[in-house]
Design a protein that fits this description.
Structural class: alpha/beta
Strand order of the largest sheet: 3-2-1-4-8-6-9
Number of strands: 10
Mean pLDDT: 89
Oligomer: single chain
Number of helices: 29
Largest sheet: 7 strands, mixed
Radius of gyration: 29 Å
Low-confidence stretches: 1-6, 11-28, 706-721
Length: 721
């Protein structure tokens, strides 16, 4: 790897206790020595995975082929081989990660090169948003801003909130939040807000537009999601790692799940916190500088990203063609294709993110991710994509594609068993092989959980940070039981998503629900999940008819289907098992997770306030670029909208028409003056009523201590970035 410097090798060799790497360092070519070491690791992962897969396949052949072969049995065995190999690969990574963490030393990880004295470089912190909660977005920005400020490192950073919001009310809230956070932090000129008029290509297009327009100002960009949060220490560490490793194009962190309140969220938060470390260490063990990118909580070198990671259009139409929906895996592959390294800083502390609050919202997000990952099949056929990148793409495809493969595997097996039942043919099979295969499968499924608990219990102080050993064990047991219940539900939906995409049904890009709230009601849950219990009962009756043993084999999947509706409802509860599923970030949260940003908004329609309220209107107008005149069609359209708004009131405009007016700052400023100067009896009653309510609330506010300055801040707001 060209980016492996002598400094990194020196640090690795000095810290490696076995001394084996030191011998390699003595080789004349440092790069070849490193490549040899990484190659040995990859061969080890491949051989262990292949060995486990071959053993499982041999046992399956011994079981299925005891009385000869039928076409259904051949298909069943083929599908088993794919599914079992995927399972074996995951277990192998977890096992190797457990060994790495048990040794307590990983000589080849990129964080070994971190030097706190390395000077920082100009870095953009970018956060693309789409109709998100303004308090959450700007609260996370404020937390990172304050953290960097306390470290006296703020001069190296600029913050960019890149909005694609289409909801006029959300757009106004974002503008007010930008103004508030700039005043609270004195961040004018450091915190920038930009809203695109047309959200072309969604998030990837938003990032690409930023890089083209303002990327030349910065060497790096740290990409955050709307629910992402990072500490100043973590962000500055990423910048220093980039400076130390000049061939690194992307460095991805391992975000921890935080700030969840629902039962589903807290279970996932606990599971991720306990089980992810060994998987992350195992993943880094073999991929090294050929890692992956997850789209957020990562740092990117802007110049090669802009030069090499333009996303191509896919053949055909959506859902499997057209514009790329899941851009991150593809961008990592293109970065590697251009000769740059993609690293995984799995042990870097201070990276956090949220997650959907309940099972229903989790499934909705998966539908979008499923379509995006299935599009990656085109890149498996592309030229110049490196083998490791193809492997990452295959893993992403199988994350959803394995569900229909599992359904087909069960279907072919059940169909063959049904045929045997009708023909009164009792299939003989090796009970010993079946028992051994069942044991191996259970080890592959639940072994990583056991290894994770062993790793956790090896450090007593860390166990206490989870609430103590008893709570950890009980939480792990309950999490395992819950995961068994929801696994068939996810298989059902993933299978449906895959077949819908194949049939040409595309997804609608909606804002992800991030807050807990009350969750979906019973009617929505029943409408979404009703086929599952019916299928569970039907498949159970059919399995019983085939053979009681077949029913016993399917029972874990059938129970999850039958109980899908109550489990989905319970997943949104916030008052269950609060004493369990504790994590260190919940019991002793870092300061960045405690910061709260409160946005003071007027009640009612924010679009109306953007017209009436002098402060709202001034902030909004200041953020709009001057529109070029000279187009009669555009001028006439905006003028007609303004006339319609004045005569018929705000309720007469559609959301699209409101966005068009918001985009024209001069017209909105004119409307503000016009409505305030027009006598009430000469305007639409809706405006007269809004003005009366505004004056009343203003008088009440004047009689109390002011909570906010009603005038523009003394520091002139900067225009949009």
């Amino acid at each position: 790897m060209q980016g492996v410097t002598e400094q990194r090798i020196r640090i690795m060799s000095e810290n490696h206790r076995s001394g084996k790497l030191v011998e390699l360092i003595g080789a004349e070519n440092v790069k070849e020595a490193f490549q040899k070491k990484v190659g040995q690791r990859r061969w080890a992962v491949a051989l262990v995975t292949f060995g486990i897969s071959l053993l499982g396949l041999w046992l399956m052949i011994d079981i299925v082929g005891a009385q000869g072969w039928t076409p259904l049995e051949v298909l069943e065995t083929f599908l088993f081989g794919i599914l079992f190999a995927n399972l074996a690969f995951g277990f192998t990574q977890a096992f190797l990660g457990f060994l790495v963490l048990a040794e307590g030393h990983e000589p080849l990880k990129i964080t070994n090169t971190l030097d706190a004295t390395t000077p920082l470089a100009s870095t953009a912190v970018v956060m693309p948003v789409y109709n998100e909660d303004a308090e959450t977005v700007f609260g996370n920005v404020q937390a990172l801003y304050r953290s960097l400020q306390q470290r006296h490192e703020l001069d190296s950073y600029d913050f960019y909130i890149l909005s694609d919001s289409t909801d006029p009310a959300k757009a106004v809230e974002e503008e007010l939040a930008w103004s508030d956070i700039c005043r609270q932090t004195n961040g004018f000129g450091k915190i920038h807000y930009r809203r695109r008029k047309l959200p072309v290509n969604r998030k990837s297009g938003n990032i690409a537009d930023f890089c083209r327009r303002w990327g030349h100002r910065h060497r790096y960009m740290v990409v955050l999601d709307a629910d992402s949060l990072m500490t100043g220490t973590a962000v500055s560490s990423l910048v220093r790692l980039m400076e130390t490793n000049p061939r690194a194009g992307i460095i991805q962190t391992m975000p921890r799940l935080v700030k969840t309140e629902t039962l589903f969220g807290r279970i996932q938060q606990f599971a991720s916190r306990v089980y992810s470390p060994i998987f992350a260490a195992g993943l880094n063990f073999w991929q090294q500088g050929a890692g992956n990118y997850w789209g957020h909580n990562a740092i990117i070198r802007i110049a090669p990203f802009l030069a090499s990671c333009a996303l191509p259009g896919l053949p055909g139409k959506e859902p499997l063609g057209g514009r790329i929906l899941s851009h991150d895996f593809v961008e990592a592959a293109l970065m590697r294709n251009a000769g740059w390294e993609v690293w995984f800083a799995y042990d870097l502390e201070g990276s956090y993110e949220g997650l959907p609050p309940n099972l229903t919202e989790f499934v909705k997000r998966d539908r979008r991710w499923c379509q995006g990952n299935l599009q990656h099949m085109w890149f498996l056929l592309a030229q110049n994509i490196r083998a490791i990148s193809r492997l990452h793409l295959v893993q992403g495809i199988l994350a959803y594609g394995s569900a229909p493969l599992l359904v087909l595997f069960v279907f072919f097996g059940g169909l063959q068993a049904g045929i045997d039942r009708l023909q009164d043919r009792v299939g003989a099979f090796s009970a010993a092989s079946a028992g051994v295969l069942l044991l191996i499968t259970l080890i592959l499924l639940f072994g990583p959980k056991v290894l994770s608990l062993l790793h956790l219990f090896a450090r007593r102080t860390e166990v206490d940070s989870f609430g103590g050993p008893v709570r950890v064990l009980l939480s792990a047991f309950l999490e395992t039981f819950f995961s068994i219940l929801i696994a068939p539900v996810l298989v059902w939906f993933h299978t449906r998503f895959v077949f819908r995409n194949i049939a040409g049904q595309t997804v609608t890009w909606n804002t992800q629900t991030r807050a807990g709230g009350t969750g979906p009601g019973w009617s929505e849950i029943v409408r979404e999940y009703w086929p599952l219990p019916i299928a569970g009962v039907g498949f159970g009756a059919l399995a019983w008819w085939i053979a009681p043993s077949f029913l016993a084999w399917l029972s874990p999947m059938l129970v999850g289907l039958i109980l899908a509706i109550p489990v989905a409802k319970l997943s949104a509860r916030t008052d269950l098992l609060r004493r369990f599923f504790l994590t260190p970030e919940e019991l002793e949260p870092p300061p960045e997770l405690i910061v709260r940003f409160q946005l003071q908004l007027r009640e009612g329609d924010q679009f109306v306030h953007a017209v009436l309220d002098p402060f709202y209107n001034a902030v909004h107008v200041a953020l709009q670029r001057s529109r070029e005149t000279g187009s009669p069609a555009v001028d006439g359209y905006v003028a007609n909208l303004a006339a319609k708004l004045f005569k018929e009131g705000p309720g007469a405009l559609t959301s699209q028409e409101k966005r068009a007016l918001l985009a024209d700052g001069e017209t909105l400023a004119y409307m503000h003056n016009l409505i305030w100067k027009t006598p009430s009896e000469l305007m639409n009653p809706a405006w007269a009523q809004a003005l009366a309510q505004y004056r009343s609330s203003f008088r009440r506010a004047r009689s109390k201590p002011e909570s906010r300055d009603g005038n523009l801040p003394k520091t002139q707001p900067a225009a949009a970035a």
